[in-house]
């Protein structure tokens, strides 16, 4: 049954979702040193351990994929393969996010990085029954000037694959203040806005993301559970939460699936969605995440349909795509 239901993944990181076989092949092709060229061994370096101490600990495993994601061909291929994998899970629409700045270490320009990922999405759309959009991530540990560079580089692709911007990396207190001008500018030229916030114990960051950065969606948002101000603004403004149960346990946003607030949020009328976050890093896919909804959170088919509709309504897709998603 889970295989057959339509799915939408609104929160999936490209560099956290690379096939290990592809990493090995690209490393050999480009003479890139990695800890092992054997799949069983390299997986130990690509999948975050269940006993991660924090989000910072979780993020360490991204170093290896980034090494092989520094050419146009590699980025296009990896994007295509990600959508190919998702299509086989009956994912009908997926928004993939990545930080263009992290793929310029071997000389690619920002627009070349973005164009390569756009082409990968288009390749998959031509071959499979899936649609996609791209979210450009700006790094919270970088400058606002760097954020402006990413926003400008993606401008020519708005409406042609690119749909939104995001802020990601380790979550710092009051990070929103640093990026107010960039977010305002991005919105003024047509970007949609989603922000990683409230993932690691700083619930007030969610309030700030909505009020200072005009976030329409929040990546994770787990810690609104401990911040009345953030909880209220999310509920009253119908802000959609991009929740990622498996990842949230790994990063210690929650200590176990049983503690995850997804079901409570859903029961209280918060707009929740279910997503993968990082398929390889978290060793997950949409089949596993949906199984958590039914088996651990005890949601019904009707509940799932409402969550699917939450995803359709919150998607940074055009009206034609949304109409198509409602046919399933």
Structural features, described:
GO terms for molecular function: adenosine deaminase activity; zinc ion binding. It comes from Inconstantimicrobium porci. Its cofactor is Zn(2+). With 328 residues, this protein is an alpha/beta fold. The protein has a single domain, classed as Alpha-Beta Barrel (TIM Barrel). The protein contains 15 helices and eight strands. The chain has an eight-stranded parallel beta sheet with strand order 1-2-3-4-5-6-7-8, with helices on both faces. Helix 9 links the parallel strand 5 and strand 6. It is globular and about 50 Å long. The two termini are 14 Å apart. The mean pLDDT is 96.
